[in-house]
Structure formats: C-alpha cells, structure tokens
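Good morning N.,

You mentioned wanting to compare the apo and holo forms, so I went ahead and generated the holo version with coenzyme A. This is what I fed in:
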Amino acid sequence: MRLNQNILLLGKKVVLVPYTSEHVPRYHEWMKSEELQRLTASEPLTLEQEYAMQRSWREDVDNKWRAQPGPPEESCMAGDVNLFLTDRGDPTLGEIEVMIAEPSCRGRGLGTEAVLMMLSYGVTKLGLTTFEAKIGQDNEPSLRMFQKLHFEQVAVSSVFREVTLRLTVSQPQRQWLLEQTSHVQEQPYRGGTSEPL
Ligand SMILES: CC(C)(COP(=O)(O)OP(=O)(O)OC[C@H]1O[C@@H](n2cnc3c(N)ncnc32)[C@H](O)[C@@H]1OP(=O)(O)O)[C@@H](O)C(=O)NCCC(=O)NCCS
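and this is what came out, ligand included:
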C-alpha cells in the first residue's frame, strides 16, 4: 500500500482514504457480521489478527482503501474497496473487492463510485488494463453492480459457488472510465497520525 499511503481520493459520494490502524476497530466490528463474512467470503479474525493484517497490507504493494461519505473518519466509515495485484506474472491484472458494510449506506451509489474510482486509479496510476472480481453466485446486488460497470462473466467455480467477472480496459473503456471519474480529486492524506510516515 506504500504507493497510496498518503493519498486521499475525493469523489462526489465517497472519500477513499488509505486503511490505517485507526480504522481497524470499526472494520473488526463490521466483520463480526455473519452476513458480511458470507458475502465477502471472509473468515472472522481476532482484533489482534486484524491489526496484524492492517500492518501487512500497509507494507505490500496492493491498494486498500476505506470508503466513507465524509469526515470525521472513523464515525462515518461506510465500507472498503481493495485492489490486489494477484498475478506476479501479469502486472496489468488487478483483483477488485468492495464492501459497503453499513446497511444504511447501501443502494445509494457508494459502491459504484468507490469501484469506479479504484478502476480509474488502477488504470492511470498502476498501469492496469484488466480487472477481475470474484463474487458469490447468489450475491445479486454485487453481480448486478459489476455488470453495470461493464464486467463480464468469464468463469464459474461450483466448488466455491463463486463467479469471476472481468473487465478488459480497451481504449473506449478507458475513455468511459476517465469520464466517469473526471470529478475525482487526489489530495494529500494526513489521517492515521499513529502511523509513521
Ligand atoms: C454489493 C454492494 C457493493 C453494492 O454497493 P451499493 O453502494 O449498495 O450499490 P449501488 O447503490 O452503487 O448500486 C449499483 C447497482 O448495483 C445493483 N444493486 C445494488 N443494490 C442492489 C440490490 N439490493 N438488489 C439488486 N441490485 C442491486 C443495481 O444494479 C444498482 O444499480 P441501480 O441503482 O441503477 O439499480 C453493497 O451492497 C455491499 O457491499 N453489500 C454487502 C457486501 C457485499 O456483498 N460485497 C460484495 C462482495 S463481492
């Protein structure tokens, strides 16, 4: 996460900030929900494991951000969005994950904007040209959202009951993506004061 650790992305509905230790307690509370564990295919972690995970994400090259509708931070966290560079043999491929954890924040366009902002960041800053999302095959809201964002199904795992959707960013797709995110501003991030810079 070193590349984005001091960057904030300001959208219309969400502000994406890097994942710092200040965000861990709220995130940990969210992930106690069995529904969210199921929808995100996540295992419950102890608080200590969650802090260790946050530290490891901070050190690696992936991009993990918190999506929130506005300051102050911890009180208005809505979810998270991550971009993982999963294929060492293909540096142009990113796997995207998104979770709008607060039920009251769903269905208001936050997930869509957070994903668009991450895709745009991936294309313009990381040189990514292909994105994949792995989604539970019964997760209708998530499947529909990614399909609306031009992702197409490329694989189904009956074992994991999961589908893989892919977006290949051709020139027209890139143009579309940049138009969708032309309002996004990049600013320095000064939160996470307990983190050494
Ligand atoms: C799936 C999720 C990310 C969608 O984010 P969101 O902010 O709620 O969705 P948006 O408001 O941006 O909606 C975008 C599109 O998604 C689809 N969608 C969203 N909620 C939906 C619902 N409850 N039922 C069916 N489709 C839905 C619609 O197509 C919608 O477009 P529309 O508003 O023009 O109809 C969010 O609901 C979520 O995180 N849920 C819980 C965890 C999860 O499932 N994460 C994904 C794991 S792969």
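The chain has one domain: 2-183.

Happy to go through it together on a call whenever suits you.

Best,
F.
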